[in-house]
């Protein structure tokens, strides 16, 4: 399996032609030498780190939890797992993902958003 790092570099390179911000959780992998070296070479990229151990402040963690529940306890190959992940996202509308990421009581929702 190829490393995800070259793909991430390519995406960041396209964005680094202008000022860019990347928001990361504070996982140690985001402080790895390869990441810091890339950022040193691309000063237009700025990384903003969230607080450590605060998944409640990171709405995408709720989406990952829903995805994990969707694919849990299934033994499949890597291509099969990718098909499962694609199916998970294809089966949900942006509003459903927003609802998973930010329940109606969440401060992440726009003003005036109400629970159905």
Can you characterise this structure?
The chain is mostly helical and 116 residues long. The protein folds into two domains: 5-53, no CATH class; 59-101, no CATH class. 46% of the residues lie in helices and 9% in strands. The protein contains five helices and two strands. It has helices spanning 5-15, 33-41, 60-71, 78-90, 94-101, and strands spanning 20-24, 45-49. The chain has a two-stranded parallel ribbon. α2 links the parallel β1 (20-24) and β2 (45-49). The protein is globular and about 40 Å long. The relative contact order is 0.10. The model has no long low-confidence stretch (mean pLDDT 75).
Shape: globular
Kindly, what is the distance between the CA atoms of the first and last residues, rounded to a whole number of angstroms?
A: 43 Å
Strand order of the largest sheet: 1-2
**Over the alpha carbons, how many angstroms does the gyration radius reach?**
17 Å
| Strands, count | 2
Uncertain runs: none
Total DSSP helices: 5
Mean pLDDT: 75
Q: Largest sheet at a glance?
A: 2 strands, parallel
Fraction of residues in helix: 40-55%
- Beta percentage is 5-15%
Oligomeric state of the chains?
single chain
Q: How are helices and strands ordered from N to C?
A: HEHEHHH
Overall tally of structural domains: 2
